[in-house]
Amino acid sequence: MGRIFENPAVIIVLIIVVVLLFAAPKLPGMARSLGQSMRIIKSEVKEMKNDGREDKPAPAPEAPVEGKIVNNPAQPGSTPGDGTGTGTGAQS
């Protein structure tokens, strides 16, 4: 029994046989997740390389929107201009 561990090739073959016998149903899923992880790493590395150099100009900011405050007429005791409205935006 002591001669099995003298040759590393025998140990490697035994490990491969054990893995194939006991983990065969899980191998496709493990290979799929490994491939997916490699694609993610590849895209992240590519993004890191292009991170510092942006050739396209920054998008122009949108024009400001002007709004009016609208009072809720359903509230009792509300008078025009008392600031209890539900609208948002700047007063005009």
UniProtKB/TrEMBL annotation:
<keyword id="KW-0653">Protein transport</keyword>
<dbReference type="InterPro" id="IPR006312">
    <property type="entry name" value="TatA/E"/>
</dbReference>
<keyword id="KW-1133">Transmembrane helix</keyword>
<feature type="transmembrane region" description="Helical">
    <location>
        <begin position="6"/>
        <end position="24"/>
    </location>
</feature>
<dbReference type="GO" id="GO:0043953">
    <property type="term" value="P:protein transport by the Tat complex"/>
</dbReference>
<feature type="compositionally biased region" description="Gly residues">
    <location>
        <begin position="80"/>
        <end position="92"/>
    </location>
</feature>
<keyword id="KW-0472">Membrane</keyword>
<keyword id="KW-0812">Transmembrane</keyword>
<comment type="function">
    <text>Part of the twin-arginine translocation (Tat) system that transports large folded proteins containing a characteristic twin-arginine motif in their signal peptide across membranes. TatA could form the protein-conducting channel of the Tat system.</text>
</comment>
<protein>
    <recommendedName>
        <fullName>Sec-independent protein translocase protein TatA</fullName>
    </recommendedName>
</protein>
<feature type="region of interest" description="Disordered">
    <location>
        <begin position="45"/>
        <end position="92"/>
    </location>
</feature>
<keyword id="KW-1003">Cell membrane</keyword>
<feature type="compositionally biased region" description="Basic and acidic residues">
    <location>
        <begin position="45"/>
        <end position="57"/>
    </location>
</feature>
<keyword id="KW-0813">Transport</keyword>
<dbReference type="GO" id="GO:0008320">
    <property type="term" value="F:protein transmembrane transporter activity"/>
</dbReference>
<dbReference type="GO" id="GO:0033281">
    <property type="term" value="C:TAT protein transport complex"/>
</dbReference>
<keyword id="KW-0811">Translocation</keyword>
<dbReference type="Pfam" id="PF02416">
    <property type="entry name" value="TatA_B_E"/>
</dbReference>
<comment type="subunit">
    <text>The Tat system comprises two distinct complexes: a TatABC complex, containing multiple copies of TatA, TatB and TatC subunits, and a separate TatA complex, containing only TatA subunits. Substrates initially bind to the TatABC complex, which probably triggers association of the separate TatA complex to form the active translocon.</text>
</comment>
<comment type="similarity">
    <text>Belongs to the TatA/E family.</text>
</comment>
<dbReference type="InterPro" id="IPR003369">
    <property type="entry name" value="TatA/B/E"/>
</dbReference>
